[in-house]
Amino acid sequence: MPDRVRLFGEYDRNLSAIETSLDVALAADGDRLVVSGNPEDVERAEHVIARILDAAVGGAHITPEDVALALSDVRTQTPAVLPVTLLRTQRGREVRPRTAGQRAFVQSILERTLTVGIGPAGTGKTYLAVVMAIRALKNHDVARVVLSRPAVEAGENLGFLPGDLREKVDPYMRPLFDALNELLDPTTVNKYIDRGVLEIAPLAYMRGRTLSDAFVILDEAQNATRDQLKMFLTRLGGASKMVVAGDATQIDLPSGARSGLRDAADRLGSIDDVGIVELDESDVVRHPLVAKIIRAYTHDAAPRPQ
């Protein structure tokens, strides 16, 4: 059995979460864990414990979020099919899906060639997409990673700005760099960029290209028009995987321009090998207040033009 802290959590908080959620009593007896309570609740608790035990044996440090996800799985009879840990950050932190929506997003990326993830700020769309891209690169599933965003504020006409391409687009690509720098040391990031293994470029620079043997991400896709999204989606080449992520409630396009994100989801949803994943405030993994802020702005609010 893995060590007690890794499985039970500090001060046995993981066990406390199971006891509270399922109305059972848990007691450690040497290498055994005794579960008592209503037979149905005991059976559910045993299934939850089995899931987190498998993860802990695999080396994971179980968190309350992992327990909550296991509880949700058992209630909905959802099979556990994801890898325990997707990657580790530079500081050794395990990166795993922390909500049901995040897991659906990651599962779609694993199983499908194209995944469209739509959800509010803080749901981990960008970060998890970059994690999956770096994971695919390290596993030699792809030869390169291409990260793109619409540079809306500059109208995607960046030539007048001083500096090289990276200096021109850095303000727009900063969230992607932040994710990369958490997963890879800066030297590795720069080496990948210099060798063409990692490319970070605005959406306008994708036109006319075929992206083969690559993991391709379009972030902030709500700021791409229908024609721009069509252009980007048709860049997909052989042996590649593509993720499109955006927040349909935060569109920054100029007045009169229509976002193509929802349009793309509606058009592509019935196509095999395409996954459309909707995340909501229950998938927010930032400060708990962020979910409340999202609800305050979402509920009873008139929808913005798409």
Structure report:
The protein has helices spanning 4-8, 13-22, 39-57, 64-76, 100-111, 125-138, 165-183, 186-195, 226-233, 261-268, 288-298; strands spanning 25-29, 32-36, 87-88, 94-95, 114-118, 144-149, 198-202, 214-218, 241-246, 274-278. By secondary structure, it is an alpha/beta fold. Helix 2 runs parallel beside helix 4 (64-76) and helix 5 (100-111) packs parallel to helix 6 (125-138). The protein starts with a helix and ends in an 8-residue tail after the last helix.
Number of helices: 11
Element order, helices and strands? HHEEHHEEHEHEHHEEHEHEH
User: What structural category characterises the helix and strand content?
Assistant: alpha/beta
Poorly predicted sequence stretches spanning 5 or more consecutive residues: 154-158
Mean of pLDDT: 85
Separation, N- and C-terminal Cα atoms: 53 Å
Radius of gyration: 21 Å
Number of strands: 10
Shape annotation:
globular
